[in-house]
Amino acid sequence: MGHSRLLLLIIYLGLTVSGCKKYLEAKPDQSIATPSTVEDLEGILNNYAFINARYPSAAEVSADNYYLKGSDWSSLIDIQRNLYTWQKYDLIGGDYTAPYSAIEYANIVLDAVPKIPLGDRNRLNIVKGNALFLRASYHYALAQLYCKVYLSSSASKDLGIPLRLNSDVAMKPSRSSVSQTYTAIIADLQAALPLLPLQADAKYHAGKPAVFGQLARVYLSMSDYDNAGKYADSAINLYSKLIDYNTVSKTSAIPFVQFNDEVIYDARTAAPQALANSRAKIDTSLYRSYAADDLRKVVLFKANADGSYGFKGNYTGQNNAAVFTGIATDELFFIKAECAARNGKTSEALVALNKVLSTRWKKGTFVDITTTDKDLLLETILSERRKELVFRNLRWTDLRRFNLELTYNKTLVRNINGTVYSLSKGSDRYVLQLDRSAVEISGLQQNP
Question: Is the full-model pTM beyond 0.85?
Answer without folding.
Answer: yes
